[in-house]
Amino acid sequence: MAGARLRYPPLRLVPALAVAGLTLLPAAYVLASVLAGGDTARLLWRPRVGELLTNTVLLVLLGTSACVTVGTLAAWVVERTTLRGRPLWTALMVAPLAVPAFVNSFGWYSLSPSFAGLGAAVLVTTLSYYPLVYLPVAAMLRGVDQALEEQSRILGNGTWRTFGRIVLPQLRPAMSGGALLVALHLLAEFGALQALRFDTFTTAIYDQYQSTFNGAAATTLAGVLILLCLVTLGCDLGLTGRARLARVGRGAARPAITHRLGHATPAAFAGLVLLAAAALGVPLGCIAFWLLTSTSTAFPAGELWQTTSTSIILALLGAAVTITLAFPVAWLSIRRPGRLSRLVERSTYLGNSLPGIVVALALITIAVRYLPSLYQSTAMLLTAYAVLFMPRAMVSLRAALRQTPPEFDDVARSLGVRPAAVLLRVTLPLIARGVGAGSALVFLAVITELTSTLLLAPIGTRTLATQFWSGSTSINYGQAAPYALLMILVSAPAAYLLTRRSRMVES
Amino acid sequence: MRTRHTLVALAVTAAIGLTACGTNEAPAGTASGAGAAKAALVLYNAQHEEVGQAWADAFTAKTGVKVEVRNGSDFELANQIVAEGAASPADVFITENSPAMALVSSKDLFAPVDAATKVQVPAQYSSSKGDWVGVAARSTVFVYNSSQLTDAQLPQSIMDLAKPEWKGRFGISPSGADFQAIVSAVYAVQGDAAAAAWLQGVKDNAKIYRGNGTILKAANAGEVPGGVIYHYYWYGDQADGGAGSSNTKLKFFGGKDAGAFLSVSGGGVLKSSRHPAEAQSFLAYMSGAEGQKLLADGDALEYTVGNGVAANPKLKPLAELDAPPVDLNTLNGPKIVEEMQRVGLL
Predict the structure, then answer these.
(1) Structural domain count, chain B
(2) CA of B74: how far to CAs of A55, A459, B99, in Å?
(3) Does B99 fall in a domain?
(4) Which residues of A touch B69 (CB under 8 A)?
(5) Which residues of B touch A113 (CB under 8 A)?
(6) What domain range is B217 assigned to?
(7) Distance CA B120, CA B307 (A)
(8) Structural domain contains residue B23
(9) Is B246 found in the same domain as B162?
(10) Which of A47, A113, A320 is nearest residue B11 as measured by Cβ atoms?
(11) Nearest 5°: CA angle at A397, between A226 and A380?
């Protein structure tokens, strides 16, 4: 039976190929037009590009190192020491996920106009993105094999030596995975940096877009940015390492070793409090301050309600479309593993490593020239969301599919159910949890998405993110504050669900 | 099991259905206007969101013609109209500065302005080609921190800012269309060679900010002694309590200096408009007595340009500004952007 079935059933292969093609479209378009452009040399070899390259690379290196250091240290203190209040700390450490980076940045710069430059950019992005390292490292620390650490101690190594030689290498995959995410976020970051007077490729592309719409200068910078993203992806492959981390036989599960902090307790406590205050206290406090004091604070309830519902509807639609498009690819890669299906699956990850501005710019240019009916439509915006956030759906769907035995499908088939019905009646219900988790991830991402929404939103469509942006860039801080607060409130439940889930998966 | 599967199927169907609705929304809205209901105009608004919206709302209240607004910046929307060509959904386009109008005009995408509308605005504030009219104006100013700079130390011309003594002592916002318009005026008044040398000097000297409001705030905080902005940022803050401008004063260059440039916000009707009659009457409304009065009475504090409507009395009168004469429709936006890319300001 198994030998007789087609390796790649065409009805399933074709949608998967189409989805992969769609996600590759923006990058392919940008690179092709850079190569074809007659003006490329003039726009590429100029001092400004050098400045941007220096700024971008510095930010990625410093920001990523800071996130890895802060995230790993915080995770170790919370998970592996005797510090009290672990559930509370866990919640506080991941809560910044619900505060968009550009809101966090607003919290800092609205206090003083001199908060600007590289230092400010590294500080703000670290406070926003360290949870991307914290989450996987904390999960790894909970699940990691204890025996190696005990053996190291028995052989005479102290706490620090054991940490350096045993714990850190075990954490390497989690740290490098988190670091990759942080680096890609930093390459794409726009809103948080724009106000800090620190230009990177992404902010410069936006400036070019404002000055020339889809001009060659913007496309050329986008081409360089895509190359930087590819280099970053390549670095990650080198950093993960090949050391064997598992042992033969799982042994008996038992709670992780906790280290006594002793007289270091106050320092650890103060460190975590400081981190939470900087990452949560400053933005939330600032929002409260502007809500209470600003003269430009208007509370147009009707407009706030309308904007909130637009945001939620767009996020729900975005999640539905993204999950639907991700499904054929996820199915193919798990149920029909092979070189072609892996290639198809991998190609859908490129979109997520592209900044929203690049994807939006490419889609606009393609639509204006070839698909005028799609231009400035909601469908176009949802397409951009799908391209950008496909990997978030893919990861969840793949994990869920992997946990579902393919034998169920075979049994259903042998009982006479047709392939399409197997999909609907057996496969989909079994992966419902994965669908939910993937949807929550995409939902969160859409709520806080700024650049492609700014460029692609149909006439009259306003989201919480674009309204906040409009208020904060015209320095009507009081006008921006309610939108920031609503964005956090709408994101919080999805962020909470995700952290709870990551705990459940580990336990 | 069954209910779950139904739910998933429902969700997927709903998502696809809604997506399809979303796609149809915009064209359907425009097409239905041809029927019994009045036409809905699309305004591409590069003016301040509040200014464009106030005109649109007042026009709808007066005539019943709905106006949908797409907000953006000058060159973003102008280039967008150029890229869209005849398929552009826009009926009317208004900007903050003239170069973006000149760009659309140079591609012959504007329809001629109704004769009755043209006479509402003095000729020097409109396109020499007769395809757009001025709807508002803003004066270039040098804002300075009055405890850091004395009157004697102020620049006498905007050209002075390229001199070495101004290194690191003033702010500009080169990514905005406002500063780009000021640069285009320097090119128009001083000629290409002198202007190019000036631009290089400004690039070497200026501190870069994003947005005129940020420059004002920075000068007020003493972070930078001065900056090149438009007048209404300062007047707006003064009217709002002055928290962000109380330590600053304005220097109007005057004397027909390039730095006294009066930048005119234009309005035009697109040739491709599907509702040309309504679009022309909207333009007539904005540049006419009622629209100009709305501008004078509002919080925007930009200058009115229409005949017989004086600007807000808080402002230094338009007649005293002594701005340089510039043919607005020849201000070359794309060339200025290229020049700014060349020196590295963009």
Answers:
(1) 2
(2) 28, 16, 8
(3) yes
(4) 459-460
(5) 214, 217-218, 221, 223
(6) 138-260+333-343
(7) 6
(8) no
(9) yes
(10) A320
(11) 50
In this structure, the answer to whether residues B202 and B120 fall within a common structural domain is no
Q: Do B344 and A47 touch (CB under 8 A)?
A: yes
Q: How many residues are there in chain B?
A: 346
How many other C-beta atoms are found inside a 10 Å radius of the C-beta of residue A108? 21
The helix/strand/coil state of B93 is strand
Q: Are residues B89 and B149 in the same domain?
A: no
Tokens of A75: 């995770």
Residue B131 belongs to a domain with what CATH number? Answer: 3.40.190.10
Please tell me which residue of chain B has the smallest CA distance to A43: B341
Site of tokens 């939330």: A284
For residues B114 and B279, the answer to whether their CB atoms sit within 8 Å is: no
State CA B305 to chain mean position distance.
Answer: 14
What pairs with residue B45 in β-bridges?
A: B71, B94
Residues B112 and B98 in one domain: yes
Which residues are CB-contacts of A492 (< 8 A; sequence separation ≥ 6)? A98
Tell me the CA distances in angstroms from A92 to A88, A447, A495, B285, one per residue in order. Answer: 6, 21, 12, 55
B126 and B149 housed in the same domain: no
In contact, B79 and A214? CB cutoff 8 Å? yes
Among B9, B12, B26, whose Cβ lies nearest the Cβ of A458? B26
Shortest CB distance from A114 goes to which of B213, B223, B342? Answer: B223
Q: Provide DSSP, A254-293.
A: -PPP-B--GGGHHHHHHHHHHHHIIIIIHHHHHHHHHHHH
Kindly report the pTM of this predicted structure. Answer: 0.82
Give chain B positions within 8 Å (CB) of A295. 240-241
Instruction: For residues A502 and A440, give the distance between their C-alpha atoms in angstroms, rounded to a whole number.
Output: 13
Between chains, do A211 and B76 touch, taking CB under 8 Å as contact? yes
Whether ipTM > 0.90 holds is: no
For residue A229, what are its two tokens?
């993203």
Domain identity same for B51 and B188? no
**CB–CB contact B208 A197 (8 Å):** yes
Q: Which residues contact B92 (CB under 8 A, 6 or more apart)?
A: B41, B42, B43, B44, B267, B268, B269, B270, B273, B279, B282, B283
Identify the residue whose tokens are 């170790």: A76
Domains of chain A: 37-238+269-293 (1.10.3720.10), 296-507 (1.10.3720.10)
Q: Is A303 exposed, middle or buried (0-12, 13-18, 19+ CB in 10 A)?
A: middle
Structural domain contains residue B27: no
Torsion of CA A217, A218, A224, A225, to 10 degrees: 160
- Predicted local distance difference test score (pLDDT) of residue A130: 96
Task: Tell me which of A39, A380, A422, A459 to substitute to probe the interface with B (most B C-beta atoms closer than 10 Å).
Answer: A459
Of residues A104 and A396, which shows the higher confidence score?
A: A104
The number of residues making up chain A comes to: 507
Q: Assign 3-class secondary structure to B141-155.
A: EEEEECCCCCHHHCC
Q: Which helix (H) or strand (E) holds B230?
A: strand B226-230
Residue B75 to residue A211, Cβ atoms within 8 A: yes
DSSP label at A37? -
Regarding whether B207 and B189 lie in a shared domain, the answer is: yes
B157 lies in a domain? yes
pLDDT in tens, chain B (346 residues): 344 444 444 444 444 444 434 333 333 333 333 333 567 999 999 999 889 999 999 999 999 999 999 988 898 899 889 888 888 999 999 999 999 999 999 999 999 999 999 999 999 999 999 999 999 999 999 999 999 999 999 999 999 999 999 999 999 999 888 999 999 999 999 999 999 999 999 999 999 998 898 899 899 999 999 999 999 999 988 988 888 899 999 999 999 999 999 999 999 999 999 999 999 999 999 999 999 999 999 889 999 999 989 999 999 999 899 999 999 988 888 899 999 999 999 8
**Inter-chain residue contact B25 with A458, CB threshold 8 Å:** yes
DSSP bridge pairs for B268: B93
Residues B196 and B53 in one domain: no
